[in-house]
Amino acid sequence: MTQYVAKRIRFRNGERYSVLQVPYGLPVHEVTVYLDKFRKRGRAANTVHFVCCSLALLYRELDVAKVNLLDRLAEGRFLSVAELNRLASAAQYRVQDLDADAQDESKSNVIHIARMGLRRKSGVSERQPVDVGTQASRLRYIADFLAFISDYVGSTLPKEAKRELKAESEQALTAFREHVPPVSRRAKLNSRVGLSQEEEDRLVSVVHPDSPDNPWDRGFVRQRNWLIVVLLLATGMRRGELLGLQIGDLHPSQPKLLIIRRADAVEDPRRIQPNTKTYDREIELTPAIMRKLWSYINKVRRKIKAARAIPQVIVSDEGAPLSQASIDKIFAQLREACPGLPVTLTSHVMRHTWNERFSEQAETMGLTDAVEEKARNSQQGWSDNSKMAAIYTRRHTAKKGREISLKLQERLDDKLDRDK
After folding, report:
1. Model-level pTM?
2. Is the distance from CB of 21 to CB of 4 less than 8 angstroms?
3. Do the beta carbons of residue 10 and residue 16 sit within 8 Å?
4. Among the three residues 177, 211, 231, which one is the final residue of a domain in this structure?
5. Is 2 left (phi over 0), alpha (psi -120 to 50) or beta?
6. How would you write 237-295 as a 3-class SS string?
């Protein structure tokens, strides 16, 4: 089977892009043409890469079925119902090596003996499902690409063949889109929430550089990882915003910093560039946290010679800007080393935690819902009419709901007592 992979590339001007190719081969031309429309629309590099991964799935499945898409369309024929059904089924599952980055990271000479036994018994490797949202997005992009490539090739056919191909493709794709699953917004019981106050206190205690429970050995790593956790909890910023933070974004004499969107920054050497998804904004810190931040930069980070030429605040112990995968690894190590911390602990849980603490503080200060909403949107970089707060305040909202419900039940309790 041909190993089609989505590969990220970085141009000299800093622009990040993705191409579909076979290892050591040229990019697939028609996919490059299709992806270019996303590039012209200014879509984020991660969005383009997701589309490319979806098309890697398409091309691999067609290769398994021994279907050459361009040859088939050049004959004036579209994909059959059976072939489209096969694609829809494949879109349900995770295919790790569709992404060249994941392929590189997963290479290992070690195979667990239990997995070897399982493979011998089943004859196939285990397939893990993706979430419904990912499956739906894959199918939409695949359908859109198939409509695009059908028109693209159809334009070269004789008039009658072109008309027949268009009619056939439209009918087939209408049926194919029926496979797109509805993404329910009602299943909220297992939705991500922030840390409780006790869990937050435990986390801050564990990551303190002097803590005996701190899972890291090297002093620089301890200082940096502690600062990462503190800044995420203090500001509610995203992982990408933290990794994009530059020393020049810090106010030299006031406890303030800027969150700035720098898509395709030339000075950022990372192929997968962490980025800001929200509006630019200014965040104020307490003087104590700002002093710790400057102390890390001037006393800890400065000892890494290679880092002195790097504008990013958060760097590796080799002096390179830290990657998003490294942040994920930090929280994975925390989960493993500290059983008392939630198994769902990630950097994004810090953002949920900040929003819940924000709600609690707003309630203590007696802010109206309208004022609280505007204040939160300003701090998180959301638009004035954004409804994102509902996603990040589930625990606090559920708590208030329980309190109100119990108050209502207390009224019934009084009536039950009188009935006695």
Report:
1. 0.69
2. yes
3. yes
4. 177
5. beta
6. CCHHHHHHCEHHHECCCCCEEEECCCCCCCCCCCCCCCCCCCCCEEEECCHHHHHHHHH
pLDDT value of residue 108: 42
pLDDT band at 187 (very low <50, low <70, confident <90, very high): very low
How far is residue 138's CA from residue 141's CA, in Å, rounded to a whole number? 5
Domain boundaries, position 319: 190-420
Number of separate domains in the chain: 2
| Residue count of the chain | 420
pLDDT tens string 285-338: 999 999 999 999 999 999 999 999 999 999 999 999 999 999 999 999 999 888
Query: Are 256 and 237 in contact, with CB atoms under 8 Å apart?
Result: no
Retrieve residue 108's tokens.
């290992």
Residue type, 274: P
Considering the domain architecture, whether residues 214 and 313 belong to the same structural domain is answered as yes
Q: Is residue 331 part of a domain?
A: yes
Report residue 1's pLDDT band, with 50, 70 and 90 as the boundaries. Answer: low
Assess whether 323 and 355 both reside in one domain.
yes
Please check whether residue 101 is in contact with residue 9, taking contact to mean a CB–CB distance below 8 angstroms: no
CA 12 to chain centre: 25
Q: Tell me the C-alpha distance between 103 and 3, whole Å.
A: 10
Residue corresponding to tokens 């974004």: 249
Neighbours of 316 (CB within 10 A): 17
Mapped onto helix, strand or coil, the DSSP state of residue 315 is strand
Domain boundary among 130, 149, 177: 177
Is there a contact between 78 and 169 (Cβ–Cβ < 8 Å)? Answer: yes
Same domain, 403 and 343: yes
**How far is residue 292's CA from residue 234's CA, in Å, rounded to a whole number?**
13
Judgement on whether residues 156 and 231 belong to the same structural domain of the protein: no
Same domain, 163 and 293: no
Residue 156 and residue 234 in one domain? no
pLDDT at res. 40 = 85
Q: Are residues 35 and 137 in the same domain?
A: yes
Alpha-helical (H) ranges within 178-218 are 197-207
pLDDT of 147-157, one tens digit each?
999 999 999 99
pLDDT the model gives residue 87: 94
- Which amino acid does the sequence have at 306? A
Judge if 199 and 147 occupy the same domain: no
Q: Are 34 and 143 in contact (CB under 8 A)?
A: no
- The three-state secondary structure class of 6 is strand
